[in-house]
Amino acid sequence: MENLDGKCVALGVTGGIAAYKMANVASGLRKAGADVHVIMTENATQFITPLTFETLTNNRCVVDTFARDFKYEVTHISLAKAADLILIAPATANVIAKMAHGIADDMLTTVVLAAKCKKLVAPAMNTAMLENPITQDNLATLKKYGFGIIEPTVGMLACKDVGKGKLPDPEVLLDYIAMELAREKTLAGVRVTVTAGPTQESLDPVRYLTNHSSGRMGYAIAREAMLRGAQVTLISGPVSLAPVPGVAMRPVTTAKDMLEAVRETLPETDILIKAAAVADYRPVTVADQKIKKKDGDMSIPLERTDDILGWVEKNRHPGLFVCGFSMETENMVENSRAKLEKKHLDMIAAKQFEDIGCRLRCGDECGDADHEGRHQGASADGKRRSGWLPAGRDCGTAVILSESGIFFRFLVDAGKMNAL
Q1: Alpha-carbon distance 169 to 25, whole Å?
Q2: Does the N terminus or the C terminus of the chain have fewer Cβ atoms within 10 A?
Q3: Based on the number of CB atoms within 10 Å of its own CB, is 156 exposed (0-12), middle (13-18) or buried (19 or more)?
Q4: Taking the alpha carbons of 76, 109, 175, 148 in that order, is the dihedral positive or negative?
Q5: What residues pair up with 149 in beta bridges, in sequence order?
Q6: In 53-77, which positions are buried (b, 16+ CB within 10 angstroms) versus exposed (e)?
Q7: Which distant-in-sequence residues (6+ apart) come within 8 Å of 315 by Cβ?
């Protein structure tokens, strides 16, 4: 999770079976550097003890509005003023109804009513209770008053019913908090489209041509843009990565699919970042049945796939900023500069391919002087820089060349992207 040093987060825990998940949320926030305060309803203490949260947060867990805590301050007002964000999770139908109608009859609802910070609500209850028109009206009322609603997930509930109503996993709740607090919203109002991952070009029903790509680079960039307030669309080839919260996901498979998705989103895009590893060729024909193995060699006629950046070059609208990516095994700067000029890009990220074995042998932070030279690249101004990209086949150095000669480095590590 992103660093939350200096941020104060209040967690409101209500009386649902999913209350146990909030221990991991409190722990994750504390590890991220946040000052965490937990407010529990009386019913919540039947599922998890205040002592658990006090141990995890190093702060007193508040339950009773009139507790004799011997602080010369009004606790519900001081918490309301201190909090940068309040997350109510799990939020029962009862507490949702109270908050929607301004009822403040315990410490949690009193703090929520007094607070002016951003409030997130994660409903968790039986499916029938959730779908009841009264509950839906109450959630709509909360949205009208500026509350953010974190949609419950579908699965088997504690009552053994299967349906919508489960509290999302702690990692999802932490992501929603990070969306609000982790970054200044320097890209608010900016529309960013990112392409990521490989494409797959079918040879027959069970085989395809593709590139080595984890998709982590594009996903990390999309996440960073989202955290900075951008409206992000992520066009992704087949990857084994969880969707990025707060990002509009567009799954695709082939280069043609990706081109169509780019065509649809480009008119509403201010920044296009082409981080996908698009296959350059596809089989001329796709067999209807599995191609059987035979004695001797086999040749597969290939044809060029659609040139997505070439199409963008001819159809870009005024003000569009385009960043391309280049993976090279040799002459990284020269080949990437040629692509920058040929495609009329505003910027290009050039990666020197390194085999996965180098990272496995050296670890994430290679300090070997001999390897330092291989991991370095040059910017447009001739200065050399070095840096790591994600683990796996994406290992290498990213060098970004811009026509203005400005150097940037994208350092991606453990799912985080920093523009240095």
Answers
A1: 9
A2: C
A3: exposed
A4: negative
A5: 121
A6: beebbebebbbebeeeeeeeeebbe
A7: 263, 266
DSSP string, 122-173: EE-S-HHHHHSHHHHHHHHHHHHTT-EE-PPEEEE-TTS-EEEEEPPPHHHH
Which of 8, 159, 366, 395 is flagged as catalytic?
Answer: 159
358 counts as catalytic: no
CA–CA distance, 286 with 292 (Å, rounded to integer): 14
Nearest to 47 by CA among 71, 63, 68: 63
Alpha-carbon distance of 83 to 8, in angstroms, equals 5
pLDDT beyond 90 at 323: no
Give the per-residue pLDDT at 78: 84
Burial 30-52 (b: 16+ CB within 10 A, else e): bebebbbbbbbbebbbebbebeb
Whole-prediction pTM: 0.77
Nearest one of 32, 59, 43 to 51, comparing CA atoms: 59
User: For residue range 252-278, what is the model confidence (pLDDT) as tens digits?
Assistant: 999 999 999 999 999 999 999 999 999
Q: Which residues contact 53 (CB under 8 A, 6 or more apart)?
A: 11, 13, 22, 23, 26, 38, 40, 61
CA angle 64, 66, 70 (to 5 degrees): 105
Beta-strand ranges (E) seen in 150-253 are: 153-156, 162-166, 191-196, 201-204, 207-209, 231-236, 248-251
DSSP letter at 242 equals P
**Residue-level pLDDT at 158:** 84
